[in-house]
Amino acid sequence: MAEDSDLEKTESATPRRRQKAREEGQVARSRELVSFALLSAGFFGAWGLSGQIGGHLEGMLRSSLTFDHATVFETRRALIGAGAASMEGLKALAPLLFLTGVAALVAPIALGGWLLSSKSLEPKWNKLNPISGLGRIFSPNGVLQLGMALAKTLVVGVIGTLAVWNHKDDVLALVTQPMAVALASTGHLIAVCCAMTVAGMFLIAALDVPYQIWQYEKKLRMTKEEVKREHRENEGDPHVKGRIRAQQRAAARRRMMQHVPKADVVVTNPTHFAVALQYTDGKMRAPKVVAKGVNLVAARIRDLATENNVPLLEAPPLARALYYNVRLDAEVPGVLYGAVAEVLAWVYQLRRFNTHGGAVPVRPSDLDVPAELDKRGPAADEDDDIEDIEDVEEIDPQARGNGRGNNGGNSSSRNDGGRA
Fold first, then answer.
1. How far is CA 375 from CA 325, 353, 371, in A?
2. Could you tell me which of 397, 256, 373, 382 has the C-alpha nearest to residue 321?
3. What's the half-sphere exposure (Cβ side, CA atoms, 13 Å) at 290?
4. Tens digit of each residue's pLDDT (9 = 90 or more) over 110-124
5. What ranges does the record list as Acidic residues composition bias (predicted)?
6. SS3 136
């Protein structure tokens, strides 16, 4: 049952499905709306422009029926007269043709919008298959289209018959009326019949337009499996995205770890937190955090620091304050200048001791760390360290390359005299 429900097209079309259908030339269209628009434009155009059209037609008839002996026997003059009559006829019909042309363009756009698709012009050989053609004819949609055509013919025929029947006395009286009166009466009868026909076509179009919209929406419906597949194509498979995200995080951690050998000191918790600080006099306004992490990442930072002779200092309050309040590649805030200055002073003394000997420098303790900074911040997760790295790389794309290019040979580029 579940498989059958997945095969049923019960879901509304997605925006991508609609866009693809438009690219293929599939939009809602109503032939009856176009027919109604053409009849309305023709009727109201002829009615509104009857004076102008009558004037041009009168001129055409006058020039056609007025001729002399020379015109009859000279082909050139006869052709000139025919050309002039044709121009008068064109001038008479040009406004009406323009109105019907505009109606033919606007009616489809009003329902399905403007669409130019080359795919709809491509030849489809399957439409030449007589078997599939018979299938379309006897399909529910084909039967309905046939019913609509018959209904349209029936409506127009009934309306025309009723119009003539209701005015049968006027029609019979035309033969007894003077020419001018008879022509005016004939025009009035034609206008009434046309108006009733347009009204009937309006009813047919009013029924066909909602049906065509419903039929179009039904055709675009999707199964639940199609919606899921499209969602995966748009958003990506969650499992694949998870693996990509994990690989990105691993690469980001590796890039961050490449900065640890260049650090001046690593402040630890001692086990849960590790923050690497770096300061270059004359190039930096203040010390900055070049690496930080918790748990396994912190252990890896400590191991790298030990391998590259970077001093480790156990200062839990300062380590937590730096981890929670300073982003990667950001400078230490002013409230921590004093505590970080004591740490760097101890590092410089340690370097001097390693180079020249003397008294062993005393590790700093009781560092001045504000209580409001020594508390759990917005996050304490290894993934947050990676988000910091990615933020830095978005702001400074060179950070990615710099981290990779400076891997290895770091101690030789520093004038620190050695490590503890």
1. 10, 35, 7
2. 373
3. 26
4. 877 776 666 655 666
5. 380-396
6. helix
